[in-house]
Amino acid sequence: MQVLWFQDSKVGHINQVKSLLDSMILDIEFEVHVVRLDQEISASLLTSFNQDQLILLIGAGSKTYSKILALKKTLSRNFKTFAIAILKPSYKLKKFDLICAPAHDFNFFKPASNVLTFQGSICETSLLETQTNTGIIAIGGSSNHYKLDEKTLINEIVYILDIHPKYKFKIFNSRRTPVSLSQALKGAVIGLDNVIFIDVEDYKSKDFKPTLQTADIKFVTPDSSNLVFESLSSKGKTYLMQIEDPQYKRIFGSKKIRNVMNNLVSNKNVGTVSTFKKNGGVKVIQIQSPKEGLEPLAEAEKLSFKILNRIKNQL
Known about the structure:
This protein is an alpha/beta fold. It has nine helices and 13 strands.
């Protein structure tokens, strides 16, 4: 099988497709050819393909979908093709052989027969054992789903560090983290022996993934579905930090991601760090733990199995 992987520039899209392909290749052999949106596919590459081979076209993100469908139309004259959209396109859904999208995109209607759903995000599954007394704090930023209140988040982080004196923490920010928040956090942890702050531009930021996969306790912000489900795809306990002022009431905007996070909390798949305002204006921070015995999610493996079965049945 030959795989043409159409890539946009979004890291979250690239990581989800990579996690899926990494799982699929454990069960079937194929070659991967990356197609960037500003590049043309070379004729020599296409002529090198065996006509008996299946050509799988795959990509995530709105800018990749039209490219996939256009090339599928051309290649189908001479090759067996199978087109997969990762995440839900906004148009021409029936033109794809398969669409793999989060279940929360179909809360109000039944998915079509060419749709496979997954929980949250497609992430690499890690079965690495956790390192005792280690913790990670991973920070996103403002988004369409949450209104970031820097003071609330900083107070919660200081509280987390204060009640876990025996733990060694690493704090990672992201490209969406406001500069003001990063600077405030650096100042807040100065002089503390149990924590280091690692900026996204620092070479040490490459330690983010192994740290997330092996930390005993993991405190993450809920604004990034990818971040939350990446944490849940490895061992250790995951906690969602409140990032909005306790007095803030959201009225407008999409609630899909918020509902996903609320369901994780309700089912105790994650713990929480919450800030409450009591009578008299006193703010109280409270931590609740997730339920015991949770295993890492394996959405990439589950999806890979279903996709390969669909391909076999359709060809």
